Amino acid sequence: METKREFLKKLSLMTVGGLMAGSIAPVIASTKNIPTVAGKKMIGLQIYSLGKELTDNVPAGMKKIAEIGYSTIELAGYGNRKMGQYEVDAYRKIVDDAGLKITSSHVNPATRNFTRENVASIYEFWKLAVEDHVKLGVRTLVQPMMPSIETHDDAKLVCEVFNKAGEIAKAAGIKWGYHNHNMEFKRIAKPGEKPPTGPFASFMPFGDVIYDLLLAGTDPNLVFFEMDVYWTVMGQNDPLEYFEKYPTRFPVLHIKDRSVLGQSGMMNFENIFKKAYANGLVEYYVEIEKIKANMTQFDGVKACFDYLNNSAFVK
Ligand code: MG
Question: On the chain, which terminus has fewer CB atoms closer than 10 Å, C or N?
Fold first, then answer.
């Protein structure tokens, strides 16, 4: 016979479970469903940063990421309904066992050329990807590569497909987003407009910036933007101007520099964090590609963590 105390304990666990399940909302409202440790900064890592150093031994690598101090990870490498060599359930278990939480994942559909003929296959791709990512436990699913956009009509179709992908993800409680590089800041001519020529043509404010067309053409309830602040600067743009103009569209960021965070002089992370927090930043992921000589990827990933952990402007 169960004592009242045991019954109440069980009930409280059920309530917690119920609340947790209920907290998977279609919007990225908070980080509350991620266990926090008092006094520890919640810093995320895009695992692409580690390349082969992680994929060679995923269980050991995940433990190392947690030991450095990261709390959350954003995946890269999903394909053929697997995470590298692992089934998604097995992969999630490895990450859980390391004490990390998978909060996001970068996924590209098979084609960069969207047409009226192939959109159905892209929607089918997202349906399966969403199914697998429910198992992985993500809150967000992000397309990291730009589909081909040369004209306003291309941009219109891409926005339509993004909205639909967002709808498919939303139905499963996942928020769908788009991650930029620098090519999104290319300008394309307005219909009928003749692009300027000459040595300064690319700096002239003609036509429309592709990124702006994506922001304007997608439904804020279905598509968010994970701004990669480094690539935005590489695209000759100011992240803060975008945060000012679209305060609700960037709940997630990629925090990236030319190499180790804070060392190049190109990026004003203090201003970036200040403005992003004011706008309600929910999550951010460190990303590092080019490592300085005599450093491993893990060394670089640790140096980035230390930079953010020691920066007073990072909460
Ligand atoms: Mg990035």
Answer: N
The Å distance, Cα 289 to ligand 1 centre, comes to 9
What is the Å distance from ligand 1's center to 89 Cα? 26
**Bridging pattern class, strands 78-79 and 82-83:** antiparallel
How far is the centre of ligand 1, averaged over its atoms, from the C-alpha of 193 (Å)?
Answer: 32
Q: What is the distance in A from the centroid of ligand 1 to the CA of 157?
A: 24
Q: How far is the CA of 11 from the centre of ligand 1 (A)?
A: 43
Residue 314 counted as domain residue: no
Query: How far is 53 from 46, CA to CA, in rounded Å?
Result: 14
Number of domains in the chain: 1
**Does residue 315 sit within a domain?**
no
Decide if 126 contacts 168 (C-beta within 8 A).
yes
- ∠ CA 277-264-283, rounded to 5°: 25
Give the orientation angle of helix 58-68 with respect to helix 297-309, to 10 degrees: 30
Q: How far is the CA of 194 from the centre of ligand 1 (A)?
A: 33
Range of the domain at 84: 4-309
Task: Please tell me whether the overall predicted TM-score, pTM, comes out greater than 0.85 for this model.
Answer: yes
* Centroid of ligand 1 to alpha carbon of 181 (angstroms): 7
pLDDT in tens, 55-87: 999 999 999 999 999 999 999 999 999 999 999
Domain presence at residue 110: yes
